[in-house]
């Protein structure tokens, strides 16, 4: 082999290496309750025009892949092509993934979409979004690695009724009623209406045990974040049956609440984003007599909320971490140019969740007292 041939081969090898180095792939998993804000914020980071798979993906899509080098993505990664893959299934599932815990029965690695439409189910997430603190879950830092925590927003929840429950006049739920509801799964309407003749049951529908939504609801009412609960769903004939597993996504709970065929009264546990899809958000209950509003959350009157956290996988590279904390002010990500800032900006116009930068109150754990 002559020197010219060797030079050509080496040049090709260097070109291939450069091309490989010019690509960054980042994997996100975790919370489904915050996927709408994440979808909009990632698009904004690309300058609004990444290539998206599937092409028809929306704010309710859990599996989305973004490819591009525009906007702040180009700034953060020096013009490199960046692929971001999301596969959201639940907050605690995300925590399990990044701490390296064994998957519980029925739980698998997140399945991501590749840009060509094929799937990838063998890659650990680089970052996960969670509606709850790590130590609210069973995968706390007493048993597993302590995760770095970047709070990127405030995710809100609203007890939501179906049409049958609304027609019964059920409009409010208290901490004490919520505790009884989780324990029994169905309660006579009289428990809400005060009319002893209202003996028909009202059923609880909700999320599975690895959902941050469920943990937040149970923590806030004092039932116990990780306690067992009794839930119901609808069978093929639109009749209530026990739901021994719970719904894996908020859309499943919203679907039960939106079923216009059933005559059974249901109340469900959903994030405000999913609650907004149930009769246009008109079927939210007040909680301890207070209606959900962004102002009520910001000022401490409404307690059914938690911080949205981004947890990096231990050992995630500094290059990938730039996506979250940015480069202009990485010590204060909400005032930098990464995903935390993009989410905070997106929340300024969200009707359902709140910018962490606008909160006038705080709490140091899920379900903990709220203080100025």
Provide an overview of this structure.
The chain has helices spanning 3-21, 35-45, 71-76, 91-99, 163-167, 175-184, 190-193, 212-220, 250-257, 272-275, 294-298, 318-325, 339-347, and strands at residues 23-30, 51-53, 63-68, 81-88, 112-113, 119-120, 127-130, 150-161, 172-173, 186-188, 201-205, 232-234, 240-242, 265-271, 286-287, 305-312. It is an alpha/beta fold. The protein folds into two domains: 22-152 and 308-358, no CATH class; 155-298, Periplasmic binding protein-like II (D-Maltodextrin-Binding Protein, domain 2), CATH 3.40.190. The strands form four sheets. Strands 2-3-4-1-7-16-8-14-11-10 form a ten-stranded mixed sheet, sandwiched between helices. Helix 2 crosses helix 13. The model is unreliable at 1-21 (pLDDT under 50).
Structural class: alpha/beta
Query: Level of helix content?
Result: 25-40%
- Molecular shape: globular
Instruction: Indicate the mean pLDDT.
Output: 91
Tell me the β content: 15-25%
* C-alpha-based Rg, rounded: 23 Å
**DSSP summary: helix tally:** 13
Low-confidence stretches: 1-21
Main β-sheet description:
10 strands, mixed
> How many domains?
2
> How is the largest sheet built, in terms of strand order?
2-3-4-1-7-16-8-14-11-10
Elements, N to C (H/E): HEHEEHEHEEEEHEHEHEHEEHEHEHEHH
End-to-end Cα distance, whole Å, is 75 Å
């Amino acid at each position: 082999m002559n020197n010219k041939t060797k030079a050509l081969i080496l040049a090709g090898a260097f070109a291939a290496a450069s091309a490989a180095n010019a690509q960054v792939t980042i994997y996100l998993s975790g919370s489904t309750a915050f996927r709408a804000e994440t979808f909009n914020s990632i698009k904004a980071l690309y300058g609004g025009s990444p290539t998206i798979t599937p092409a028809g993906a929306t704010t309710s899509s859990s599996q989305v892949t973004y490819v591009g080098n525009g906007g702040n993505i180009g700034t953060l990664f020096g013009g490199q092509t960046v692929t971001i893959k999301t596969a959201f299934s639940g907050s605690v599932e995300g925590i399990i993934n990044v701490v390296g815990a064994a998957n519980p029965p029925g739980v698998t690695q997140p399945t991501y979409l590749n840009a060509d439409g094929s799937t990838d189910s063998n890659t650990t997430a680089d970052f996960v979004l969670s509606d709850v603190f790590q130590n609210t879950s069973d995968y706390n830092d007493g048993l597993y690695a302590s995760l770095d925590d970047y709070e990127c927003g405030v995710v809100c929840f609203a007890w939501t009724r179906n049409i049958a429950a609304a027609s019964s006049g059920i409009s409010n739920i208290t901490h004490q009623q919520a505790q009884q509801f989780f324990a029994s799964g169905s309660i006579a309407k009289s428990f809400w209406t005060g009319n002893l003749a209202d003996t028909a049951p009202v059923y609880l529908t909700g999320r599975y045990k690895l959902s941050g939504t469920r943990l937040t609801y149970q923590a806030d009412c004092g039932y116990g974040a990780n306690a067992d609960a009794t839930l119901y769903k609808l069978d093929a004939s639109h009749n209530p049956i026990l739901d021994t597993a719970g719904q894996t996504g908020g859309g499943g709970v919203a679907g039960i609440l939106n079923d216009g065929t059933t005559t059974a009264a249901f109340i469900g546990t959903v994030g405000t984003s999913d609650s907004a899809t149930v009769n246009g958000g008109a079927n939210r209950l007040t909680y301890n007599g207070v209606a959900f509003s962004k102002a009520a959350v910001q000022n401490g009157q409404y307690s059914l909320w938690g911080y949205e956290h981004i947890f990096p996988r231990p050992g995630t590279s500094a290059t990938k971490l730039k996506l979250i904390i940015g480069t202009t002010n990485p010590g204060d990500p909400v005032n930098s140019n990464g995903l935390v800032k993009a989410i905070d900006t997106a929340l300024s116009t969200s009707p359902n969740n709140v910018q962490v930068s606008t909160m006038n109150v705080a709490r140091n754990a899920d379900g903990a007292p709220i203080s100025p």
